[in-house]
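Hi V.,

Quick status before I head out on leave. The structure for the redesign project is tokenized and pasted below; the design run finished overnight.
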């Protein structure tokens, strides 16, 4: 509600967000469009509590992030938010299976059930045989699919995705969109997907465009 964010570049102040209002409902898939540099990633970071707005309020699952300590925001993200980063952000020293297991371990899950859930997610993104590989042994498209599996692992209330199909061929991208939209429908997960993809736009429940610091 009423999000403002600006950055200083030497003596110049750049207004990135100029009063953003956006509500995401449970189970809703919203495509976020906008030219490069329009502030899409900034908006995702504010919603996740990775950055703080200059003005305005962000609420996730009914909780105001501005009233939380840094530790409380970290725990909120661990429970409620799944990320699909454009740069993947896989842990290079962990195997593919261990990367997918990581969010589950952070919520306290252990043992065979954890490994089984991670293996199931790898199958869903079409990479059941890659669990023992390390990220630098994967193609860009494979790393993206692993990042998506990791984001889904702990069944978050909110998925924030930055170009989740940008490194995928059309068939794999369609499979990933099936997975994301299916999760939204089955589990009531809200999704905000920053994208330039016509396929993502076609599958979204709603499309918003960020331009000149405002949503249109």
């Amino acid at each position: 509600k009423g999000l403002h964010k600006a950055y200083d570049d030497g003596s110049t102040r750049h207004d990135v967000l100029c009063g953003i209002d956006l509500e995401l409902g449970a189970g809703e898939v919203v495509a976020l469009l906008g030219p490069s540099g329009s502030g899409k990633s900034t908006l995702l970071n504010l919603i996740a509590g990775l950055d703080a707005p200059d003005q305005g309020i962000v609420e996730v699952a009914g909780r105001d992030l501005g009233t939380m300590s840094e530790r409380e925001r970290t725990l909120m993200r661990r429970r409620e938010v799944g990320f699909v980063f454009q740069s993947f952000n896989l842990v290079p020293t962990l195997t593919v299976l261990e990367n997918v297991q990581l969010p589950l371990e952070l919520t306290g899950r252990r043992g065979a059930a954890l490994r089984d859930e991670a293996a199931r997610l790898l199958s869903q993104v079409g990479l059941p045989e890659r669990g023992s590989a390390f990220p630098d042994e994967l193609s860009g498209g494979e790393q993206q699919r692993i990042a998506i599996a990791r984001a889904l692992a702990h069944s978050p209330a909110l998925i924030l995705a930055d170009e989740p199909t940008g490194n995928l061929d059309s068939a794999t991208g369609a499979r990933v969109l099936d997975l994301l939209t299916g999760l939204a429908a089955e589990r009531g997960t809200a999704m905000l997907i920053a994208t330039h993809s016509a396929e993502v736009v076609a599958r979204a429940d709603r499309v918003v465009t960020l331009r000149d610091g405002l949503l249109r």
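Above is the designed sequence. Residues 39 and 149 are 26 Å apart (CA to CA).

G. will cover questions while I'm gone.

Best,
W.
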